[in-house]
Amino acid sequence: MRKQTIAVLLTSAFALPARADRTEIGFDPGVSLHSQYVLRLRDDGGETSWFHDFELTRGHLFLGVRYDHAYAKVLVEGVRSASEGALLGVAGDSFVFRVREGYAGYWLFGHLDVRAGLLPTLTIPILERSWNFRALNPTAIERVGFASPSDLGVTMVGHLPKGFGWVGVGAYNGEGYERPELNRGKNVEIAAEIHPIAVVEQAKPLTVFGSYQSGSSGTGLSRADRIHAGVAWQGDIVRGGAGFAYALGTDDDSDKDALAVDVFAKATILKRLLLGADLTYWLRDTRADGDDAILFTGSVGVQIAKPLSALLAFDGQFFGDAARAALPDEDDYRLRVVAAFDFDHWFQVSLPR
C-alpha cells in the first residue's frame, strides 16, 4: 500500500497538468533516395560505344512541422557541386547539400492554403502525383527544362469541397531554385486540378488539370510563358495519363517556341510487382525541321518493402538531325538498375498551451 502511495505521488509530481486546452503539434520527417546503375550504348558511325556508371539521382531529407493551422517545411537535396560536364567544383566535384524547399504556410478558413518562401511550384507536383513513379524519371516538363519544381515566391491554393480538387495562383522569381533572380520581372502561375466526378466514389481518381504561366527569364527579360493541360487517372492499382505543354520562349530566346507531349502509365500487380512506361515527344524548336526527339522508358520492378523498390528500366532516345547536332552523344540506349527508398510519416503529439 505504501509503494502504491509513493508511485501516485511521484506520478502527480512529474506529470503535466491535465487541461482541456491542448495544442496539437505534428511532425513529418522523411527521406527519398534514388540510386541507379546505368549502362549506355550508342552507335558511332557503325561502331558501338558504351559507358557505365553508378548515379545518385535523388537524395532528399526533409522535415515538416505543424502547429495548429501554421506549418513549415525544409527539404535539402544532395547534388554534384559542379554543373554537368564540369570537372571541378566544391572539393573537386563532390556531393554537397543545398536547400530545395524552405517555406512556411497557414491554413485559412479550412480551405485556403497560403505559402511563402522557397516552395514547390504548382504544375510539376500534379504530374508527379498522377504518375507516382518519380524513381523512374522526372516529369517530362522538368526533363526538357520547361519548368522548375520549386522557386522563391508565394502561392495561394483554394481547395474545393467534397474532393473536387483545387485552384491556385503563384508568383515567383522565375529562374527556379537553382539560379538567383536575373531580372525585375516575376512569373505568375495559375493552375487547377479538378476531379470532375468526385461525387462518385469509384470515379474520384479521374483528374483533369491545366495551368498557365506568364513569365520571363535571363538578364534580357526573355519571354517564358507556359501552357500545360492534361488528364489522368490517380488510382491505387493503375495510374496514368497524358500531358501537353507548350512553351512560348525557351533558352532565353523569346522567339523560340517548343512543345512536349507525354504519355505515362504505372500498374501495381499483386501488391508487389511494378510496371511502368513513359513516352515523351519533344519538339525543341517549332521553327526548325528535325529539331525533335522521342524519349521512351519501360520498366519492371518489385516493391521489396513499403518504402523500398527495385526496378529494371530500359530507355530509348531517338533524335532528329537538328536535335542530334545540338545534343551530341545523347541519342543512346540505356539499361538501368534502380533502387528507390521513399519514406515519410506524419505523427503528432498534444502539448498544453
Account of the protein in words:
9% of the residues lie in helices and 60% in strands. The chain is built from four helices and 19 strands. The longest helix is centred in the N-terminal third of the chain and has 13 residues. The protein is globular. The N terminus is likely disordered.
In short:
This protein has helices spanning 2-14, 123-131, 140-143, 321-326; strands at residues 22-44, 47-67, 70-80, 95-108, 112-120, 150-159, 165-172, 187-194, 206-214, 216-217, 222-223, 225-234, 238-250, 253-269, 273-283, 292-305, 308-319, 333-344, 347-352.
Keywords:
single chain; 353 residues; mainly beta; Porin; 16-stranded antiparallel β-barrel; two-stranded antiparallel ribbon; 4 helices; 19 strands; 9% helix; globular; disordered N terminus
Kindly report how far apart the N and C termini lie: 35 Å
Task: Give a count of the beta strands, DSSP E runs of length 2 or more.
Answer: 19
Question: What low-confidence regions span 5 or more consecutive residues with pLDDT below 50?
Answer: 1-20
CATH class: Mainly Beta
Second-tier CATH architecture: Beta Barrel
In percent, how helical is the residue content?
under 10%
Shape: globular
What's the SSE pattern?
Answer: HEEEEEHHEEEEEEEEEEEEHEE
How many structural domains are formed by the residues?
A: 1
